[in-house]
Design goal:
The complex is a heterotrimer of chains A (504), B (384) and C (179). By secondary structure, chain A is α/β, with parallel strands linked by helices. Helix content of chain A is 28%, strand content 17%. Chain A contains 14 helices and 20 strands. In chain A, the strands form 6 sheets. In chain A, strands 13-18-17-16-14-15 form a 6-stranded mixed sheet, with helices on both faces. In chain A, strands 2-1-5-3-4 form a 5-stranded mixed sheet, with helices on both faces. Chain A is elongated, with a radius of gyration of 28 Å. By secondary structure, chain C is α+β, with helices and mostly antiparallel strands. Chain C has helices spanning 15-18, 21-40, 82-86, 123-127, 154-160, 175-178, and strands spanning 66-67, 92-98, 106-114, 133-134, 151-152. Classes of the chains: A alpha/beta (504), B mainly alpha (384), C alpha+beta (179). Chain A binds chain C through residues 96-100, 104, 119-122, 124, 132-133, 208-210, 212, 214-215, and chain C through 78-82, 85, 96-98, 102, 105-106, 129-130, 169, 172, 175-176, 178-179.
């Protein structure tokens, strides 16, 4: 275990630790472009040069390993002068088109320039023109002029995905990032290169020109695209999610996420419904609607076997626990089913075949046996009759459009069809009661991923219209039925979940 | 009998519609707006045009179209009554404010009684021979004329007090209280200050007072009230301005503190009527001061048959009777408007008093001064 | 706790002043002087009769916004959102889009200014890196009968605009000496 002194502070690190890591342990940030903790260190950007005593010249902090008795200075006069020189070199051919660059505001080059250089260019000759708006992949756009050739993207494709699409072509100031002939950057994790790109050279086609980064607020959240539940930064502006960025979580996704999950944020914005509808009326308040629903259920005088409750593998654990409580004690349902999105393609890295974010939470609340009673069984039972009232937690179904229409047609025949949904669609128009609920970006909720990792997220912004959190729907319905309701807050539900776990 | 009633009605119509109201309402424009604009180096209202009348369409007409437009606007504005206000009193109160302001005009003489015969001037008085005197120029020739004025002006306090109370608003109530306190305080010195003049003239009949002011002291100085009772003139002017709540005594509607005082919650024509009653009362102050202290309808040296310089039986410059009447009514109007003008000048000259200063001035200065004035006058009258 | 009391002496006024009447007369003489002067000559009146007589605006008067254009008539704005970010009234709405011409790359597909909401502070002009937005039209915001007509879109703003001679991306001359 070598001990080094960095900026006068001592630190003991495992053998083989780079100076930049040791400095980070002390809370000292060494400016860098090409270094990434998950990738190899080529030490080609020269931005992390630091002064090591007894060394003849400045050394790259990302590459040089700490040895015992090493004395390092990261902010000495020499180091700062070197950084200024490196920045000036990089900026010789950089277009400085920050006003139209999507990276502006979260650009390393911009930040370091403001911190260390902040001088006008000395260049009097023209800049070298390179490729602009180059479609390097289906989801990624490349701008050669902005590129500082740190090769993070190249190393990502070599070392993380192992697909090796990218390389550096040409030499000197004509160097550019390109795909190998006949290839394009089309692996399922391709958009990660835009996150690791320190400048605006690689941008996603989806987020391009959509929103300036300084306008957005970032909330820690998760991706609900599949059972992996990758941790993300949910960047939102004016009550609308603008993008997901992977958030470092060593238990789940490290630094990465898949392209499909990254684009799954669109589900949070498109076709949302915030309207509360009971029969023909859509001007009701929640208490009023809850009383009408309770009254209608009481008037129908149904047997438990005629009432079905459909749980959703899409919902938060809180909603599933509250829904279970409601279905058993207030709705008095005798039949239970579950729905969720259909399975997709999975792989050994992050993507799961199970596209539902909370199957584990579903099993926790409703038991293992519910998994045998899926959407196909529900459709079959609806057709065979016997069900007169149906409560569905979500409109997410594993069917294609035709099957959904078929289910909607069957549901129209029911006496009572209550649907708690965040989206408008044929199913919600078939429902006698449509209850608007929030998405995971709009409520507090816990999702349990395929490996059993539970992640609780907070609301980033307010839900549309009169939509409320999933679990709150059951509290209000219970209040409408004048029934006792023990789960009247997220804390109460959490207490229930954790006491269950303790009992097991 | 019937002709008498018709005559009285005619006089009422003439006084109210041709004198009190027009001057009173025109003042809102010329006094409050145009005059103040000139004092303050502004232009004042000049944008509204009577474009429907050919020939006048492009002229500003010193801003008179603004006043017509305001009237039209007031008629069509919504009459808002605050929640919890006493609706009955709220509706009645503008009339209660306007009524005394108009009724007071009954005793103001615009000219001496009309003489059907020939006029002989004797000892500075017009004496009617071979004919009767007819009361054409004041609505009622009351012997207790001045007492009538004091009685009615005492009633006018109700308008403001009830307006403040009926609005169910704090500003209004404070304004109403202030106005009643102020009006009651100044009524005392108002009556006492003029008592000296009553002693000198020996009458309460306003027309008789004016006739006596035709006397020339030493054959050249008109014996106007301001000459024989200068102190009383200032006290009376101040007290009357306080009575009509004009600046600098406009505490009841002190807009910097209580928005508009007792009429804060009045809108549309109700507001206009209250405002009009204030202006009519202000004009009345002018008329009353002109009557008591500025010789009323008297023109110096002018008597029934023409100008007399000294106590002579024949006129030095003979004039026909109609010309004398015209001159005298003109003089009275001029004096009234002069006092008005003076009140508006004072408004833009003096800052508003503090409330304790208003009370101090009324009780500690005006009251002792008017008492002293009365005592001294009484001694002088007794000795002479 | 001791309270410090400052005694302010009553102003020492002579009986002449305290009797009020002479001082009122003095005040009246000032106001009457002004009154008669303006009644007969209008000499001191400072009012400008606005619609007929207009005051000359200062050179840097901030009027309605205008969008400048390039030599080829394209809008100079590159939709960087600096102006809408700087705007304290949030009155600028821009939707960026990709331009067919790769030399332009980014341009505003929608550029709307709510002139009713604008507080005429000029921050957008200060923020603009491209000399694309200016407020030197000299036209002040006039009243609108309908709220919709107060939204000035790109064509309306360009109509007020003119060509800008500023070098797109900054002037490179003189930089050497500065360094």
């Amino acid at each position: 275990m070598p001990t080094a002194t960095i900026n006068g502070k001592e630190v003991t690190v495992p053998r083989g630790t780079a100076i930049i890591r040791a400095a980070a342990m002390l809370g000292i940030n060494v400016p860098h472009f090409c270094y990434h903790p998950a990738l190899s260190a080529p030490a080609n950007c020269r931005m992390c040069l630091v002064e090591v005593e007894k060394a003849r010249k400045l050394e790259p902090a990302c590459y040089l390993k700490v040895t015992d008795g090493m004395v390092v200075h990261t902010e000495s006069e020499k180091v700062v002068a070197a950084r200024q020189a490196v920045l000036e070199f990089i900026l010789i051919n950089h277009p400085v088109d920050c006003p139209i660059c999507d990276q502006a505001g979260e650009c390393k080059l911009q930040d370091y320039y403001m911190a260390y250089d902040a001088k006008p260019s000395r260049l009097t000759t023209g800049k070298v023109g390179k490729v602009k708006v180059y479609p390097i992949g289906p989801e990624v756009v490349y701008d050669g002029e902005r590129c500082i050739l740190c090769t993070r993207c190249v190393r990502f494709c070599d070392q993380i995905t192992g697909t090796s699409e990218l390389t550096v072509v040409d030499r000197g100031d004509r160097s550019e990032i390109r795909t190998f002939p006949g290839r394009e950057l089309d692996n399922p994790y391709s958009m990660n290169v835009t996150d690791i790109c320190p400048v605006g050279a690689l941008t996603t086609r989806d987020f391009r020109f959509k929103c300036r980064v300084w306008l957005m607020t970032s909330t820690d959240s998760i991706c609900t695209g599949c059972a992996r539940g990758c941790s993300v930064h949910l960047d939102h502006y004016l009550g609308e999610t603008q993008r997901y960025r992977p958030r470092f979580n060593p238990e789940v996704n490290e630094y990465w996420m898949c392209d499909e999950g990254r684009l799954s944020y669109k589900r949070l914005n498109a076709n949302r419904s915030g309207a509360l509808r009971v029969g023909e009326r859509d001007d009701l308040s929640w208490p009023r609607a809850a009383r009408m629903i309770a009254g209608a259920l009481a008037d129908a005088q149904l047997q438990p076997d005629q009432i079905a409750f459909v749980a959703s593998a899409d919902a938060s654990t809180e909603a599933l626990v509250a829904g279970h409580e409601y279905a058993l004690n207030i709705l008095r349902a005798g039949r239970f089913y579950w729905t969720g999105r259909a399975d997709g393609e999975g792989d050994a890295f992050l993507r799961c075949a199970d596209r539902n974010p909370n199957r584990a939470g579903l099993v926790h609340s409703f038991g293992e046996q519910i998994l045998e009673r899926g959407a196909d069984r529900l459709l079959k039972d609806l057709k065979s009759g016997g069900i007169r009232a149906l409560f569905m937690m979500s409109s997410a179904l594993p069917f294609g459009r035709e099957a959904v229409e078929e289910l909607a047609a069957e549901a129209r025949k029911l006496d009572i069809f209550i649907l708690a949904t965040s989206h408008a669609g044929s199913l919600s128009s078939a429902a006698t009661v449509s209850l608007p609920v929030a998405k995971h970006s709009e409520q507090t909720g816990t999702w349990v991923n395929i490996d059993g990792v539970a992640q609780t997220v907070d609301a980033a912004y307010a839900p549309p219209g009169v939509a409320i959190a999933d679990w709150d729907v059951y509290r209000r319905l219970a209040a409408g039925a004048d029934a006792e309701w023990p789960l009247d807050s997220v804390d109460a539900i959490h207490a229930r979940i954790f006491s269950d776990e303790a009992a097991e | 009998m019937l002709t008498d009633i018709l005559l009285i009605l005619l006089k009422i119509v003439a006084v109210v519609l041709l004198f009190a109201m027009p001057i009173g309402s025109l003042m809102t424009l010329l006094g409050d707006r145009k005059q103040s604009s000139m004092i303050q180096n502004r232009v004042g209202p000049n944008r509204a045009r009577l474009s429907i009348i050919p020939g006048l369409g492009r002229l500003p007409l010193v801003g008179i179209p603004h006043f017509l437009a305001d009237g039209l606007k007031m008629i069509f504005k919504e009459d808002a009554i605050p929640d919890g206000a006493d609706r009955t009193w709220h509706n009645i109160v503008p009339a209660m404010a306007l009524f005394p302001a108009i009724v007071m005009w009954a005793v103001i003489p615009f000219h001496d009684h009309y003489c059907t015969g020939e006029i002989v001037v004797q000892n500075y008085r017009d004496i009617c021979v071979e004919g009767q005197t007819r009361n054409f120029f004041s609505i009622a020739n009351l012997d207790a004329g001045l007492l009538y004025v004091f009685a009615i002006s005492g009633v006018s306090v109700y308008g403001a007090a009830i307006a403040g109370w009926a609005s169910n608003a704090k500003y209004s109530l404070i304004g109403g209280l202030r106005s009643s306190a102020q009006m009651i305080s100044y009524e005392v010195s108002m009556a006492l200050s003029v008592a000296g003049a009553i002693l000198i003239y020996g009458t309460l009949n306003l027309n008789e007072m004016v006739v006596q002011q035709g006397h020339l002291i030493g054959g050249w100085l008109p014996m106007w009230g301001i000459v024989v009772q200068p102190l009383a003139f200032f006290i009376f002017l101040g007290a009357m301005m306080a009575e009509t709540k004009r600046a600098p005594f406009d505490m009841p509607e002190g807009e910097s503190e209580i928005v508009a005082g007792y009429f804060t919650e009045f809108s549309s024509m109700k507001f206009a009527v209250i405002q009009l009653s204030e202006y009519v009362a202000t004009v009345f102050v002018g008329a009353l001061i002109a009557t008591i202290f500025l010789g009323g309808w008297q023109v110096p040296y002018l008597y029934g048959d023409g100008f007399h310089f000294g106590n002579t039986p024949t006129a030095a410059l003979e004039l026909p009777y109609w010309a004398v009447i015209a001159l005298r009514i003109g003089a009275f109007s001029f004096k009234t408007i002069f006092i008005l003008w003076l009140q508006f000048m004072l408004r833009w000259t003096l800052p508003r008093f503090r409330y304790d200063q208003v009370m101090n001035l009324g009780w500690k200065i005006f009251l002792p001064l008017s008492l002293a004035n009365l005592v001294i006058t009484a001694f002088v009258v007794a000795i002479l | 706790m001791a309270v410090t009391v400052t005694k302010i002496p009553r102003p020492d006024r002579s009986l002449w002043v305290q009797s009020y009447v002479p001082e009122v007369m003095r005040g009246l003489s000032i106001t009457s002087k002004q009154f008669f002067k303006n009644l007969f000559t209008k000499k001191d009146v400072v009012t400008i009769q606005y619609p007929e007589v207009k005051r000359d605006y200062p050179e840097r008067y901030r009027g309605l916004h205008r969008l400048m254009y390039r030599d080829d008539g394209q809008v100079r704005c590159v939709a960087c959102m600096c102006c809408s970010t700087a705007c304290p009234a949030n009155c600028i709405h821009i939707e960026a889009a990709e331009h067919d011409d790769t030399s332009i790359e980014k341009y505003p597909a929608v550029f709307v200014i709510d002139e009713l909401r604008c507080i005429v502070c000029g921050m957008c002009v200060e923020a603009c890196p491209c000399d694309a937005i200016r407020m030197d039209s000299g036209i002040h915001t006039h009243p609108f009968y309908e709220r919709d007509t107060a939204f000035f879109d790109k064509p309306a703003l360009l109509e007020l605009g003119g060509p800008s001679v500023a070098h797109q991306g900054g002037d490179m001359k003189g930089v050497q000496g500065h360094h």
